[in-house]
Amino acid sequence: xxxxxxxxxxxxxxxxxxxxxxxxxxxxxxxxxxxxxxxxxxxxxxxxxxxxxxxxxxxxxxxxxxxxxxxxxxxxxxxxxxxxxxxxxxxxxxxxxxxxxxxxxxxxxxxxxxxxxxxxxxxxxxxxxxxxxxxxxxxxxxxxx
Length: 145
Prior knowledge:
five-stranded antiparallel beta sheet, 32% helix, alpha+beta
């Protein structure tokens, strides 16, 4: 007996993804954070919500503050037992993490992502309209099961 495609489409364990365009506005990090939170809660992946929301907010904030350009594209991929978030922009420069003084108010975003995510990294290239071969994606992976 074959797999019923209609049943597979409603299976929350089947790999699937969601995308959100984030315009270059100061409100985009909050919208992106709320988007990821909503998707993960709807799918009952609550163990990953807090870390995913914070990491997403940090990556979209970095894009807003440092990448410039046309904004960013957030891609949330669900492939249990993990979730992966990638934030693409049109700036090919890789983000850098650097020491921040104890009293500093900025500069800890990538350190937070590194401490909360199971893995994170940078890939060269972005979707057309956001840099294509010249852009980049910053991603993180979290356990969600």
